[in-house]
Amino acid sequence: GGAADAATVDITDEASVQQALVAAAARTGKLDGVVCTPAVNVRKPILKYSGDEFDRVVRVNLRGSFNVLRAAGQIMVPQRSGSIVLFSSIRSLVTEPGQSVYSMTKAGIVQLARTAATEWGDQGVRVNAVGPGVIETPLTAPIKAQPEWYQAYANKNPMKRWASADEMAGPTVFLLSDAASYVTGTILFADGGWLA
Question: In terms of CB atoms within 10 Å, which end of the chain has fewer, N or C?
């Protein structure tokens, strides 16, 4: 019963992001909500990280999220309404060997959300983050391929399992919706209790 459109967007390309969001707002007359989920990771110890690998992870995770946040804000602030949800991670608070740059970018995303929330809150725009725990996605496929590693991660949370990607929909929809009308500048962890 609904309607949907699709477009290819390179979140590392500022013009591509801006064009996509302006087009979406033009089709409907406004932009109510934006969710930014893309991320990449290179699992390596700090001393083995190359400059190109660092740049790639930062470019997608941090610069890409910044591009989406700013393009959405350029539309939502003048219309004086809207909700933006960026995807961070439990890695914004806890890390492990080989997660340096990924964790750094995920912590940075939280600070982006908090700063935008302080800048745009009085103009009716809310900005928050979702902090997933271990989720079965293409990004985590190398872990799933190693049963002992996969189970060790499952055992780190009280639910003793990984989440499916669709389990992130509920927290995201909540933050986008009017049910979260007084929620801004925060991160909602959906981690099966990992941080507990």
Answer: N
